[in-house]
């Protein structure tokens, strides 16, 4: 007699029916649009997390480094008065006066670039005047001046960091400004569709307004959905409207051409978000490049460097009290190939 054993008489694995993968809902244009929205949302979340982490890292960083940096700033600011007074003495040669001017400019640029201090007045006072010839005037006519707004301040960014960033923006050349203007124009063209919430609001309202449906069973659901759509429109929150479109729009009521345009704009947004994330992780501030013990080691080393710099600047200030000491400093700098301290 043959008894059936359900534990040993199972069918072979290759004889089991394999369920076909479920087809993604919607047209290819809808699928691409939905994927683009999901990717943008993931990048936005990643950016928010990085910004929060960097704000905390920046707070800890300046809590530890700030006092030492302030000491150096005060020491450098103290050099301006004796250097300017030396230019009025008539004691130094023309070459030495040029060296003193270079020393003033170098000190001002250091304060501005490294510490974000406002040294614009000193730079305007002693920076050499640039001559503008006919070629420059022609270039100015070909490349219109572009008003470059100051970069947005990062969350928790120290004031001197903001000032340093603004200073870097002011020093951009005409070619850099023209290139940035062209790139911005391209981004504006790509994002023109994303700047208009009215078109998307009307499309969603036509599809989901409760008064346009005869099905009473869905009236409550449509009312809630329409409330979300209206709130997003009144807040000019196009991204929420895009999410609602990706979640709710049926294939037979969505224009594939319009979705393709939204998808293209979202892909451009992905590129920009990735660039912002890259800057946060590996930019000049470097708050995301290292963490933990390595970051603490870097902070300790920087504090040692700042302390040594402050001590050196105190010695320089002592030399500046006498013309002979300043002349000795100028000779030492020239021998080492430096024009500033």
UniProtKB/TrEMBL annotation:
Keywords associated with the record: Coiled coil
Domain of life: Bacteria
Gene3D superfamilies: DnaJ domain (1.10.287.110)
InterPro entries per the UniProt record, alphabetical: J_dom_sf
The keyword Coiled coil belongs to this UniProt entry's keyword annotation: yes
Region of interest: Disordered: 1-29, 125-190
Any coiled-coil regions, as ranges: 33-60
Biased composition (Low complexity): 10-29, 154-166, 181-190
Protein name as it appears in the record: J domain-containing protein
Species this protein is from: Hymenobacter psychrophilus
